[in-house]
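mind reviewing both lines:
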Amino acid sequence: MIQREYQMNNGFSTGEEDSRGNSDQICCLVDDGDRCRRPAGNASYSKRIQKTVAQRRLKLNIDPQARHTYICDHHKSMIQCARTKQRRNKDSEDDSNEAEMDSPEIDWFQLQVNTLRRYKRHYKVQTRPGLNKAQLADAVQKHFKSLPVNEKEIMTYFIYMVKTNGNKLDQKNGINSDSV
C-alpha cells in the first residue's frame, strides 16, 4: 500500500486525495479493449454502475492496473444514457397500450391542477381521493396514453373540415359553415 503525505490545513487536507480525484489521473476503464486516456472526473465506477454496464452489455471493464476507480465524463455520460434508455424501455413495457415513442410528448406537470381535475372528471378516470398534482398528472397521462386513436378517420375528418372551412364547435352549436 502506498502511503502519501498531504499538507493539512486546519484538519482538512489540501492535497491530491480530494473527492474529485487527482487532476493527473486518467479514466480507470478499458473501452472495448483499449485503455481510456481521458482525464478522470469525480464519478466512481461503483458496483451499481458495474451492474448497469453488465446489463446493458457495454464493452467497459475496469483496468486491473488502475489504482483508483474514477471514470471520465465521457464514460459517465455513456453509462447515464444507457440507464435512461433502460428506464424508458421498462416504462414502455409496463404500459402495453402506450403509444409509440414517435408520438409527441405532453408535459402534464405544466398544467394547472384544476385542468387536470377537469380532465379526470370528464373522462371519469378512477383514482383514489386526495392525490397531489404529480400523482394526478401521472394518472391523467397514463389514461391519455391508453386512448385508442384511429388516425385514418381523424385525418379524413380533418381534411374535410379544412376544405369546408368548418370546425367541430360550429357543428355542436347548430351553426352551419354554409350559413355564415
